[in-house]
UniProtKB/TrEMBL annotation:
SUPFAM superfamilies: MFS general substrate transporter. Belongs to the SLC29A/ENT transporter (TC 2.A.57) family. One of its GO terms (molecular function) is uridine transmembrane transporter activity. It is found in: Basolateral cell membrane. It holds the Pfam family Nucleoside_tran. This is Equilibrative nucleoside transporter 1 isoform X2. Keywords: Membrane, Transmembrane, Transmembrane helix, Transport. InterPro entries: ENT1/ENT2, Eqnu_transpt, MFS_trans_sf. One of its GO terms (cellular component) is basolateral plasma membrane.
């Protein structure tokens, strides 16, 4: 039976569900990434005031209290507590998917992330001292990224049952998650309401998106298009596997043992002989340039975003409205929109090629963004001067930084798994590991880069 004989994706229902699941995968974490003003305010050491009072002071009177250690290091610890669990659980997911049913992994992860965000929304209304609030926030970040890694790995496995084009909506949803979060933050600022109310609505929105993702996943198995492809894939795989096993058993019955062993070897080595599984080392030797390249791309990106980039002040804002919109717009919104633009470019252009020396050179060239951002108009410089004061420098660097991140990372992830047959899956797992490794290394180096400023 061909694909044409199967049911159609009516009203693009399956496509939209995968888009919503992709959005639900990264939106919670992106909300944490963009909520720097809220978290920074809650970490103030101002005594004899409640959390609500401190939020109102910043929003209503513009009082700038001295930055504490927790405020100064929040972005670094946030990045570290996010990327290390992401790396660890990306590796663990390769074992979990064999032992834990798909529904448990996906629904369980969405439920946990939803509960964590509900707790975050409730804590907006509850006064807490800075240190306990900081610890609770870090624990929440660890939980979100741990279950997010399981959710993401399971989702791409689920999409693998369908035609290749159904991976695209997951990528689209993930790419737009950051933009959606940044826009939500800007809208919260634009309302002019107390920061407490804005933050509460901000996190409740994340809970609604997660509920929509849960509902979408529950509906998915009921759609004929999804049922057809998922059942078809499993049936074909099992029939093929049973057929190879049957051939081996028949050979052992019909012939004496030595010949049977030899025949078994001839028939089953290509697919099912455990001693002939693709070697991880041999596959890594074929894709090591792409693996190290994607690792380096994200090491540079997470090394400065947001730990350095979110610490830049506007030079031209003065006391205008641009001052409070500068980081949400010039940092977070600009990064997410430009990063998505870079990802989208790979749908039209795959230059330079996989074997071109120009690709790793372009990846290595991105290291220049580290000193460029460190020399921008940061709030506090200890060792380095401020060279690029004007906002135009910062915005220009941010556009090039984020477009190159999206384009080069997508290019590497596209070329990496392009190996024949059974090697492709292992190659994809290796690429996913090195992507997570890059995120973790970036989180670690962010402490060093921040200390050098």
């Amino acid at each position: 039976m061909t694909a044409k004989d199967g049911p159609q994706d009516r009203y693009k229902g399956v496509w939209l569900i995968f888009f919503m699941l992709g959005l639900g995968t990264l939106l919670p974490w992106n909300f944490f990434m963009t909520a720097t003003q809220y978290f920074s305010t809650r970490l103030s050491d101002a005594q004899n005031t409640t959390a609500v009072d401190r939020l109102s002071e910043v929003n209503g009177t513009g009082i700038n209290l001295p930055r504490t250690y927790l405020q100064a290091k929040f972005n670094n610890f946030m990045t570290l507590c996010a990327m290390l669990p992401l790396l660890i659980f990306t590796c663990l997911n390769s074992f979990l998917h064999q032992r834990i049913p798909q529904q448990v992994r996906i629904l369980g992860s969405l439920v946990v992330i939803g509960l964590v965000f509900l707790m975050t929304a409730v804590l907006v209304k509850i006064p807490m001292e800075p240190l306990p609030f900081f610890i609770v926030t870090m624990v929440k970040i660890i939980l979100i990224n741990s279950f997010g890694a399981i959710l993401q790995g399971s989702l791409f496995g689920l999409a693998g049952l369908l035609p290749a084009s159904y991976t695209a909506p997951i990528m689209s949803g993930q790419g737009l998650a950051g933009t959606f979060a940044a826009l939500a933050m800007i809208c919260a600022i634009a309302t002019g309401s107390p920061l407490e109310d804005s933050a509460f609505g901000y996190f409740i929105t994340a809970c609604v998106v997660i509920l929509l993702a849960i509902g979408s996943y529950i509906v998915l198995p009921r759609l004929d298009f999804f049922r057809y492809y998922s059942m078809k894939d499993k049936t074909e795989y099992r029939v093929h596997e049973k057929h190879a096993e049957l051939e081996t058993k028949m050979d052992l019955i019909k012939k004496d043992e030595p010949n049977g062993v030899e025949k078994n070897k001839l028939n089953t080595v290509p697919l099912h002989n455990p001693n002939q599984k693709p070697s991880v080392v041999s596959i890594f030797k074929k894709i090591w340039v792409m693996a190290l390249s994607v690792c380096f791309v994200f090491t540079v990106t997470i090394g400065v975003f947001p730990s350095i980039t979110a610490e830049v002040d506007s030079y031209i804002a003065g006391e205008t409205e641009w001052k409070k919109y500068f980081i949400p717009v010039a940092c977070f919104l600009m990064f997410n929109v430009s990063d998505w633009l870079g990802r989208s470019l790979t749908a039209f252009c795959l230059w330079p090629g996989m074997n071109s020396r120009l690709l790793p050179f372009m990846v290595a060239l991105r290291v220049v963004f580290i000193p460029l951002f460190m020399l921008c108009n940061l709030r506090s410089h200890v060792y380095l001067p401020t060279i690029f004061q004007h906002d135009g420098w910062y915005i220009g660097f941010m556009i090039l930084f984020s477009v190159s991140n999206g384009y080069l990372a997508s290019l590497c992830m596209c070329f990496g798994p392009k190996l024949p047959g059974h090697e492709a899956e292992t190659a994809g797992a290796i690429m996913a590991f090195f992507l997570s490794l890059g995120l973790a290394l970036g989180a670690i180096f962010s402490f060093l880069f921040r200390a050098l400023v």
